[in-house]
Amino acid sequence: MTRRRTWGFADVSKPRELHPDRSARDLYGSEVRRYRNNAGMSLEALSGVVMYSRAHLSRIETAEAIPPPDLSEKLDACFGTDGHFGRLYGVARREIHPDQYRRRMELEARAVAIVHYAPFVIPGLLHSERYARAIFTVCNPSAPAGSIDDLVTARLSRRDILKGEKPARLSLILEESAITRTIGGPGVMHEQLRSLLTWVESRSSLVQVLPHSHGAHALLGGTLALWTLDNGTAVAYEESITTGHLIEDPEKIRWWAQACDVLRAYARSPAETAEFIRSVMEELPDEHHP
Length: 290
What we know:
Elements: H1 24-38, H2 43-50, H3 54-61, H4 71-79, H5 84-92, H6 99-109, E1 111-118, H7 129-139, H8 145-157, E2 169-175, H9 176-180, H10 186-197, E3 201-202, E4 205-210, E5 223-229, E6 234-239, E7 244-247, H11 250-266, H12 270-283
Parallel strand pairs: 1-2, 2-4
Antiparallel strand pairs: 1-5, 3-4, 5-6, 6-7
Helix pairs in contact: 1-5, 2-3, 4-5, 7-8, 7-10, 10-12
């Protein structure tokens, strides 16, 4: 009699019932369990292969947690599934965001070029894990830890459009306050600024900081993103503290694009921006540096 090979000790607790027809996230989790069981692998064994904790994988299987952006590639490699989990993730990630933001995320994911003005904080596309967690925690003080984990995972997944063979092109204009305001403590901020430095002048991004000395300008008071989509359409997203609006009026978008051009002309060059970021990093307390 042949026996199926097992990897690690079997999970002794009764597995929670899955509902793959409930959502794409549930389908993703049920497929992880199905392939894992077919391979005779315990959660502990799979954890050792994909380098995520047993508890985290268990929450993904039961659709209590969103799959991290890099997990699907590791699962496809582990099970030899030729992009199966990557394709599932492409659907599941659309469910990460609340309904009112879903169209915004779908449009951003289609962008081939992005112009972004951010006055107060570094925008989500370039968040580090701990910086994103600090922002979500302070904005959602009563949220359970698992909910914050899902928000952070969703936030980090947005960066995928800046990677790959044909990344979207990002032009980011930051106010000085987005760099100098310490969020999450000096250690978290140092880590975020160090990450930001890698995007200041990369093959998919340019980052410029507008000096406070420039004074008033046409975009004061909110955050703005201009997207050129894969079909050539231009779309804008204007955001305030509690609301965001998609704008598809070509005349208004054209006006905003001109305003962004003016800000870029007055902003520091990428080289000067990198120097400014490093100077801010140097002023952070040394004992908090990671």
